[in-house]
Specification:
mainly alpha, MetI-like fold, 2 strands, about 0% strand
């Protein structure tokens, strides 16, 4: 008996050729030709070389060369993908390159701002600048230590007021279904979010004016003004984070007999702690650089004041504004150094918040 013969041809041992036409049956392709993963970056390099060469010959500016390169990358990569891969993948290449270009456009002002502050602030920034105040300062010395102390104290008091109030209000809106009260609170929070900072400063100053009398300036007034601006941001951010917690987690906790308050503390807040931390830091960044309300409520001084309930206090935003408005070379250097200090301070606060979030977030594989 002879073995049956196979009607199919043996598989070819020839190496794969990416430029060859895909296999087909009677002219119908079985697979779609795909360009390699490095195609987009090769197209970007080719566009940069071609447009850059033309720009050098035509004496274009750097901005014009970059814009022309981006346009050539978008058109060239899309056209080549459309021809080689078909309409569907050509549209995909168009959207992919558009997203990359949008990201680059967004990064331009951010990188420019950071670079400008680094260049302008590095001339005066240092240990002496961070550890001395403006008392007895001349063109060669004088630092913002008193501004750093005032900013940390006022922002800390404002955070101590706003963070608990904002979190508890968000819990009420999401977890307790307050009916018309919740709708009214939501409407007021939306209105408060758009209040100009100068209005918050005037409100806080008027409240303390009625209690403590005229010409009273102190750090606590500035903290109250900043808390008016900070609280609605915390409420809205935390509210959205709590809404993202699945209801199944709450129901599972209730099924085990856990009371509502403990479910909120141990399940809901622990699950949303990363988003809550981000919301709080956004609110802190919103108020830490405010100048207008602090000019009214806190004032400006050249000495270090560590008492937030008595006397004027210096803050970094007000010091930067005061030094920059003078327009002299040494004051401009102090202003840029103060702006750099403020950016570093916000960065350190964000880093500390991330570490706290990592510590309290639920552990385990996702």
């Amino acid at each position: 008996m002879t073995a049956p013969t196979s009607s199919t041809a043996p598989a070819s041992s020839a190496p794969f050729d990416p430029l060859a036409d895909p296999p087909s049956i009677e002219g119908v392709p079985l697979t779609s030709y795909r360009l390699p993963d490095w195609f987009l970056w090769a197209a970007l390099g080719a566009a940069f070389v071609v447009v850059g060469g033309i720009g050098l010959l035509a004496d274009w500016s750097i901005a014009a060369t970059l814009v022309a390169t981006a346009a050539a990358w978008l058109v060239g990569a899309t056209a080549w993908s459309w021809i080689k891969e078909g309409e569907r993948w050509g549209r995909n290449t168009l959207m992919t390159v558009s997203v990359y270009l949008a990201f680059a456009v967004v990064m331009v002002p951010l990188v420019s701002l950071v670079w400008m502050v680094l260049v302008g602030g590095s001339a005066r920034f240092g240990t002496e600048f961070l550890l001395t105040n403006m008392r007895g300062a001349d063109e060669s010395n004088g630092g913002f230590y008193h501004g750093i102390v005032g900013t940390l104290q006022i922002t800390g008091i404002a955070s101590a007021i706003s963070i608990p109030l904002g979190i508890f209000t968000a819990i009420f809106l999401v977890e307790y279904n307050g009916g018309w009260v919740a709708r009214a609170v939501t409407f007021l929070v939306d209105v408060m979010t758009g209040i100009p900072s100068i209005v918050a400063g005037l409100f806080a100053y008027s409240v303390f004016l009625a209690v403590a009398g005229p010409r009273y300036q102190a750090g606590i007034i500035g903290a109250v003004a900043l808390s008016v601006l900070m609280t609605p941001v915390v409420i809205r951010g935390v509210e959205e984070m709590l809404k993202l917690v699945p209801k199944d987690l709450r129901e599972a906790s209730y099924a085990l007999g856990v009371p509502k308050w403990l479910t909120i503390v141990k399940v809901v807040l622990r699950t949303a702690v990363a988003g809550i931390t981000t919301s709080v830091m956004i609110a802190v960044a919103r108020v830490i650089g405010e100048t207008a309300p602090l000019l009214i409520t806190v004032g400006l001084t050249i000495r270090t004041n560590t008492n937030p309930v008595e006397g004027s206090m210096a803050t970094l935003p007000v010091l930067v504004y005061d030094q920059y408005s003078r327009g002299e070379a040494d004051t401009m250097e102090r202003a840029w150094a103060g702006a750099l200090t403020l950016i570093i301070l916000v960065m350190l606060l964000n880093l500390a918040a991330r570490l706290i979030s990592m510590h309290f977030s639920p552990k385990g594989k996702r």
